[in-house]
Amino acid sequence: MFQKVSELKIGLLISGDLGKKVLDFCLDFVEPEFIATDKNSNEIIDLANRKGIRTFVGNPRGGRLVEFLGGEYFDIFLSINYLFIIEKDVISRAKYPVNFHGSLLPKYRGRTPHVWAIINNENETGATAHIIEEGCDTGPILMQRRIDISKTMTGANVLDKFNLLYPKMVKQVLKDIISNNISMRNQDDSKATTFEKRTPEDGGIDWNWQWERINNWVRALARPYPGAFGFLNENKIIIDKVTFCEMGYNSKMSNGQIIGMEKGKPIVKVSNGALILESIRNSKGLIFKVNEKFDDSY
């Protein structure tokens, strides 16, 4: 199937664990001309060095990656989990610059789309292979695959599914390009949604939310992500799992108030019910007391 791959000039723009997963897979049938990655993707950098693949590390913008590439042009760029926006000068160096994005475009353009999908209570997400344009995740779609999101799935669970799905999609896209069987369809921009980059500081819980919103927030940001959090007596509490609790309460009670304990786990009142904080990080040594209250702000 891939006898022609060796005849094609392919560059990989990859980052993180997902990028490493695809790199491991691709090396069975692809000899990359180069790899571009970020300074923190140490496993990618180490593997590239062992394999003797020339590697660009760092921010590609401002002509830095183009200078690294010299006067070369390529058949295919594969961008997987790459941390940087790819500018026009790089895009123009490949006949098929292809990005793999973790959503069903045009929905959820931007960063960490699967996290946002869980936060927003979506019941499905997926992955899209598309041609890279100057806009953010705007190019014509080559392929899409769907993933169901159950009510208990976390952001990490979706990443596990991406680890299985992305290599298969990469293989199929390469097969389609080699066989000249590429089919493209333009995105409908009128249906596009775009979400901004998240930081660890964006994980604060608003205890005035309804319990469903808090549950989605917590599971979306659970390990290996930095986690949803609140503050209790100025102590930061990172929460990886909550469950709904039938415990009664008075509507005059403050949201964020600890109204009971369940096997040493605090039960917290929110706007439409109560939640057990099932899994807590950075809480060693803390003693939770009934009638204590999580801070109103963070």
Please tell me about this protein's structure.
With 298 residues, the chain is an alpha/beta fold. It has a seven-stranded mixed sheet. A hairpin with a 2-residue loop joins strand 10 and strand 11. The longest helix has 24 residues. It is elongated, with a radius of gyration of 23 Å.
Give the tags.
298 residues, alpha/beta, five-stranded antiparallel β-sheet, 7 helices, elongated
First-last Cα distance? 55 Å
Helix content: 10-25%
Instruction: Please give the largest β-sheet.
Output: 7 strands, mixed
Low-confidence stretches: none
Q: Using only CA atoms, what is the Rg?
A: 23 Å
- How many strand units? 14
Number of helical segments with 4 or more residues: 7
Structural class: alpha/beta
β-strand percent reads 25-35%
Integer average pLDDT: 94
Strand order of the largest sheet: 3-2-1-4-5-7-8
Quick summary of this structure?
The protein is α/β, with parallel strands linked by helices. It is built from 7 helices and 14 strands.
